[in-house]
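Z., the sequence and structure:
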Amino acid sequence: MWKPPRLIPHDTRIDFLRFHKFTFVLSIVMVLCSIGLVMTKGLNFGIDFAGGIVMEVKSPEPSADLSVMRTDLNNLGLGEVSLQEFGAPDVVLIRIPQQEGGEAATQQAVTKVQEKLGSAWEYRRTETVGPKVGSELIESAALAFLLAMGGIMAYIWFRYEWNYGVNALIALVHDCVTTVGLFALTGMEFNLTTVAAVLTIAGYSVNDTVVVFDRIRFELRRYKTMAVRDVINLALNTTLSRTTVTSGLTLLSVLALAIWGGEAMRGFAVALIWGIVIGTYSTLFMATPLLLYANLRPGAKAKAEAADAPSA
């Protein structure tokens, strides 16, 4: 009878915990470097957070040449202008950074763009995001992140135990902080789409972690006398095929989005690519190895001490 090929052999026995102290140090270094980059270099906030002008325009041609438009508009001295197709090849969304000088400078920037493009273009809408709105969006994004982290931890705490919940939260913070650090390092635009990507990464990461945690709990009940270290390694190896297939297929989809999704989706796709990689890493080498120190069998130590104690 034909059997489908397995990506990971059934009898795989990888010692994932062998270098767990090294991976702990590596994770701490990545988190600290990410925080340092955000504090020193800062993030390249998009118009959503920094404020600016958004214009929706329609080309007189069947499709707009974004490369030519980008060159022309960036030569107007308005800062880095970003463009993206918006629903159709001939509809373009223009994002202009916040202009110094108030309402007059904003109107002047809009006029420059209109003069450069010409009267043949259709100007469908023009919106301005002020710095106050941007700061409110930053606060809302931070609140959404904190509520998501708290909700995930509460679920895992309720579904499993507090030690599982704490470990999952540590891994989530690790994944999200390093993702933000990646944007600080590369200087890619950080906007509301990026926040959505970070929250998506959190959900993806905890899903991967919970599968392994569930397996560990099952194996702990199944092998009551096996060492916790061996149980964790067994659970990681038995779920390795699922982890690699799920992560690999998701990564292929996101890579396609990064390559062919256009400039507007690139930041979102890059964040997800990093999130898939770092999320898989944190499950295998951070969240799960931390369970070694979580006292998964609270009565085992007391029983061992009682058995070793001299009889009266």
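The first helix runs from residue 20 to 40. The chain has two domains: 20-43+133-296, 52-129.

Let me know what you think.
H.
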